[in-house]
UniProtKB/TrEMBL annotation, chains A, B, C:
Protein name: Hydroxyethylthiazole kinase
An example molecular function term from Gene Ontology annotations: hydroxyethylthiazole kinase activity
Binding site for substrate: M44, G192
NCBIfam families: PRK09355.1
Domain of life (superkingdom): Bacteria
Keywords: ATP-binding, Kinase, Magnesium, Metal-binding, Nucleotide-binding, Thiamine biosynthesis, Transferase
Name of the gene: thiM
Requisite cofactors: Mg(2+)
Its biological purpose: Catalyzes the phosphorylation of the hydroxyl group of 4-methyl-5-beta-hydroxyethylthiazole (THZ).
């Protein structure tokens, strides 16, 4: 039976959650603008000197390994500890985890600290589960269905929800698996849309349980991508239209996205 | 009697000032593009190794505490000293000053080094004046009129102009107070528009006294926001239209914004 | 006799090269989105801890001195060494080289490590060749024709191609000189279009010899700028249209740009 996602969207807009993001430098702009458009609020301080302290203001935390600056590398672990100690939900986006040992070690350590949701593409989920190296930079070389076993295993081992992005987004808690059928190929032609999905998952985690949060965020971005593509002349106008549409989509539009038990 | 702001806009366009910005990583793009659209030139080097040296090229300096990277934390104080020693105007944007002790200490130290203008939202101005903690991330929780006493006090103590952003922007030198009635709620739905206002204030400080500079920058961004909102379908298209409009607004358009002595 | 540039564009789109970019923070967004639009893939990790390792995934490398963070300063030399040892082409964009000794030393050292192409504005090329200081921030104060001697000299000394951006872009290998007549003044009103040209040169170097790569990238961005300007209301809408047009231009459109032996 499908989950009703409309209340998640309504809740984000009714009480805009402050989402603390430690993330890829290149994607900060689209994540911040996307969160604002959806109705949430971004905060992007990442240093060890300030990020743990400022996290106390936040309603949810996004850890995206992205470009992994020295500041982020130092700031991420203590900030996760602060969020966890306070019982705030946090989301792990293990960008490109399969392709460099520094981020692989960090991601494997972080996933043991009780993230609410792990969000990645198929290659990242496979690599984080330890069942394979892979990916090409931030791009997936595995299909989403190939990653389902790894996603279930990660979810069961760490007691978290795992969301795998692809043609169909899969969300699993280790038991249930739901596929979200929305999105558009132009989403892969703009930098940072995967990072933005992580941010939206975090925003939704501030107002809903992790499973519903991951579904709502996938449906929200996917539906926005479809509608934006219909207005766009290419990836530049699509980016602006995507931000517009995150704002203009109604909760009913998001709830109308096809979500199917697998 | 109202100040004529048209000559400030004309002067920026006649001799494009180079504005050195040490600022929030997330907002660099909109500030650089906004300055270019208005007719100024951005420069964004922030390290201790280079920022003080390269500041010699600049006509004005913006210090925005933003995400406050380790590079910026180290680079800001010596760069301010270089600008001050050379007699170049500099603008302090004490982003989120009320919410973390590292930036609070830095901001309180910097404000003693003779900024031409302090620009912030109501909560930032209240926190910097020491009359209250506050803000939620970079967002204000105080109203502009509540911050007027703090703004006057800061201006008198430090001999600077203070500009408080909000529904009505207030600009004071500690004696005069002028309200600028322009702007649109969509300005709060795009990341970095407050940072961009700081950049425009710095650009205008390169060609006009600080009080007129702060008024002109507030009127320019506010009028651009109003006109852009009329063309926009949401925050994404608004962002592009705002940059367009900073370029296409005439000096007379900016001068037509209602500015009232309080 | 003109070089046919269509095969270069076709090759980028047929086998999207992964371009590793160590570059100006402020321009990361436009370079990543521009590369994706053109058909290439960006990767932007810059730390010493990860950039050399992750460069093994890439097909080409862009080194842009841009804002030159402490991370980039440390990561650039070993990453160049890895690329060079593997025989991957790399492009040097010596941003603002004439205006600060730290970057001047770095650029003069890097140019001896066999870049495929050096891309800069006239002042940067003149400064790198040691024949003059100059530039104003990232802006040129020299004309392109003034820089031709410096460009030839750099190309001959270091066995690389040098591309000088300006009203007409000049590309030389020290012997041949070809001028590319394309572009639009709006390209100078958006942050990072020069950085994007460097990224496109790197993408084209992954699939073509450096001389043809530099010509194709200049023609591609120039033609996109012309077409985008025809659709734009100002620099904000131009930026989005430029990204659209990098995607929609055909190989034949790029090949139709006037390239003339000088």
């Amino acid at each position: 039976m499908p989950t009703d996602l409309a209340p998640v969207v309504d809740a984000v807009r009714a009480h805009p959650p402050l989402v603390h993001c430690l993330m890829a430098t290149v994607s900060m702009g689209i994540v911040a603008d996307g969160l604002l458009a959806a109705g949430a609020r971004p905060m992007m301080t990442e240093t060890r000197a300030e990020a743990p302290t400022m996290d106390a203001l936040a309603d949810a935390l996004l850890i995206n390994l992205g470009t992994l600056s020295t500041d982020a590398m130092a700031g991420i672990p203590p900030t996760v500890d602060v969020a966890r100690a306070a019982g705030r939900p946090w989301v792990l986006d293990p960008t490109a985890v399969g392709v460099a040992p520094v981020r692989a070690r960090l991601a494997r350590e972080l996933v043991t600290r009780a993230p609410a949701v792990v969000r990645g593409n198929a290659s990242e989920v496979v690599a984080l589960a330890g069942s394979g190296a892979g990916g090409r930079g931030a791009d997936a070389v595995h299909g989403v269905q190939d990653a389902l076993g790894a996603a279930r295993s990660l979810a069961q081992t760490h007691g978290c929800v795992v969301a795998v992005s692809g043609d169909v987004d899969l969300v699993t808690d280790g038991d249930r698996v739901v596929g979200v059928r929305a999105g558009h190929p132009l989403l892969t032609r703009v930098t940072g849309t995967g990072c933005l999905l992580g941010g939206l998952v975090a925003a939704c985690c501030a107002v809903a349980p992790p499973f519903e949060a991951a579904l709502a965020a996938s449906a929200w971005l996917g539906a926005a991508g479809e509608r934006a593509a219909a207005q766009a002349s290419g990836p530049g106008s699509f980016r602006a239209a995507l931000i517009d549409t995150l704002d203009t989509l109604t909760a009913a539009d998001v709830a109308a996205v096809r979500c199917e038990e697998q």
